[in-house]
Amino acid sequence: VQLEESGGGLVQAGASLRLSCAASGVPVRMYAMAWIRQAPGKEREVVASISWNGNDRYYADDVKGRFAISRDNAKQTVYIQMNSLKPEDTAVYYCAAEINRVGPNPTASQYDYWGQGTQVTVSS
Fold first, then answer.
1. With bands split at pLDDT 50, 70 and 90, how would you rate the model's confidence at 118?
2. How far apart are CA 82 and CA 69, in angstroms?
């Protein structure tokens, strides 16, 4: 599975961004998918995860109500809409897939495939 993120950038606090993750290689429609971020000096954190069919989602407490994860299995693409961005959201954001799970998973270390990451920087 190859995962490629896009959509990162530099924005001001309060702005919105939408990240996309395009998957290739094998169909990912049966895999749990997630967006995971890592800020300098911090551990990787699952900010959002989605079940194979999109019916179940997990969000980290600090992004609930601001971020929304979605997927389009026909397009092999996962998205995260990030609203009301804060400087503390600054991180490298990775797309990840877990091949033996269909439901959302909040544990970053259990994901099997990762993209290269895209930088999101939020200025104050």
1. very high
2. 9
